[in-house]
Design brief:
The protein is of the alpha/beta class and about 270 residues long. It has a single domain, classed as Metallo-dependent phosphatases (Purple Acid Phosphatase, chain A, domain 2, 4-Layer Sandwich). It is about 25% helix and about 25% strand. It is built from five helices and 13 strands. It has helices spanning about 10-30, 50-60, 130-140, 160-170, 215-225; strands at about 1-5, 10, 35, 60-65, 105, 115-120, 150-155, 175-180, 190, 195-200, 205, 240-250, 255-265. The strands form two sheets. Strands 1, 2, 3, 4, 11, 12 and 13 form a seven-stranded mixed β-sheet that branches. A six-stranded mixed β-sheet has the order 5-6-7-8-10-9, covered by helices on one side. Helix 1 (about 10-30) runs parallel beside helix 2. The longest helix is centred in the first third of the chain and has 19 residues, at about 10-30. It is globular. About 45% of the residues are buried. The mean pLDDT is about 95. It binds fe (ii) ion.
Length: about 270
């Protein structure tokens, strides 16, 4: 299976850059499925149904999210619609009415089945979700009766130690681990000993001259003054950070992982 994964798409500059870059990336890699992290699509935090549709038209098939999933209150009920191609992290507490689902078996354009799982880390994240390690085990058990050709995990987390530990924990049981959330690519892509393609953080699709997507002056001032700030996304040329992974449908393990970086003039 050929999988293209685009890192966190940051607001309008990220969306515009994806629209420009994706046709070329599809031509180069011929992916069977394109997945992206969509938690920053609308104004830098959260998604709207409109921005998801815009990115679907641009060529993205399926979306994971993260800690910012819940920003646009009018749109989050769409997560309950099984045809809405967006999942939220799976390790929110069970049985308390959190909308949506944390994993889904998705069919590729070659009819392969990929189990996409979204999880939140717990270190330096400011939320108190359930254990992602045990959530992963539970999901594999719940889906064990299904034919699945590859398991794909977007682990949305801050700490590289937690990401590296999780990667080793699922090594051989998932074909792909991609880390998201920090917006800074770690470039440590590799195949782990038991066959899981791994990268601690893929980075972002968003404005280069910024602090992880936001106008740099705002963030510098925030660190100096300690005062709160309102997110204002930077302008200008954007980077596209992505990974292209090839997996073996029989062994359900990864064959290769390639980091992709493009600069898009806006
Ligand atoms: Fe995030």
């Amino acid at each position: 299976m050929k999988i293209l994964f685009l890192a966190d798409i940051i607001s309008k500059p990220g969306r515009e850059a994806v629209k420009k870059a994706l046709p070329g990336l599809k031509k180069k890699f011929s992916p069977h499925i394109v997945i992206a992290n969509g938690e920053n699509l609308a104004g830098g935090t959260g998604f709207t149904a409109e921005t998801i549709e815009e990115m679907r038209k641009a060529g993205i098939d399926f979306f994971t999210t993260g800690n910012h999933t819940w920003k646009h209150k009018n749109d989050i009920d769409r997560l309950n619609d099984k045809n809405f191609p967006v999942i939220r992290p799976a390790n929110y507490p069970e049985g308390v009415g959190v909308p949506g689902r944390g994993f889904q078996v998705v069919e590729t354009n070659m009819m392969q089945k990929i189990l996409v799982i979204n999880l939140l880390g717990r270190i330096f994240m400011g939320n108190h979700v359930d254990c992602p390690f045990r959530a992963f085990d539970r999901i594999l058990k719940e889906t064990s009766h299904e034919r699945i050709d590859a398991v794909f995990v977007d682990f949305h987390a801050e700490a590289t130690s937690e990401k590296v530990a999780f990667g080793h924990y699922i090594d051989g049981r998932a074909a792909v681990f991609v880390g998201t959330h920090t917006h800074v690519p770690t470039r440590d892509e590799k195949i782990l000993p038991n066959g899981t393609a791994f990268i601690s953080d893929v980075g972002m699709c968003g404005p280069i001259d910024s602090v992880i997507g936001v106008k740099k002056e705002l963030i510098i001032n925030h660190f100096i003054t300690q005062l709160p700030y309102k997110i204002d996304i930077a302008d200008g040329d954007s980077q596209i950070n992505a990974v292209f992974i090839e997996t073996n449908d029989s062994t359900k393990k990864a064959k290769s992982i390639e980091f992709v970086c493009d600069i898009i003039k806006l």
